[in-house]
Amino acid sequence: MSATRRRRIEVVGAGAAALSAAAIAAGPAAQATAAPITVYQIPATGLTFSGLVIPGPYFANVTAAPTATPGTVTFATPASPETCATSAGSAQITIGYTNLGTGKRGGVTVKPCDFATPAPLTATATVGRGPILITVRITGSDYKPDAGQPSLPGIGVFTAV
């Protein structure tokens, strides 16, 4: 294994560990409140173009909200009207999750804007209680395969209650 590859693995591992520690240190939120869960993240980043072919960045920030069922959250990636008016408005966001305490993993796909793509605006997943690591990808849709492209993946952590 080359020194560069080993260093990349160390950096990614250290980043995931730091994000995990931050989520664990934050502790679980009070169960009686339905306030959104704080997601510590480096958002997925994509490129958008407006009707005037002016490029701009798109940051897919993930929100997570607790449901009435413990260990279940509702994911969303809401975008501003300005972003929805660009090429990124037809993108889909794939969120992969791993419960760091139990190893349970899965994924959901949502859309940031209410357009013709088949993905829902929100998706509910049973992630289990504890620290959750998420990965975030911006993908095109059948309607616009290049929406939000090119893009870089994102990562984040939160504590599910």
Automatic annotation (TrEMBL):
This is Neocarzinostatin family protein. PROSITE patterns: TAT. Keywords: Signal. Residues 1-25 form the signal peptide. InterPro entries: TAT_signal (IPR006311).
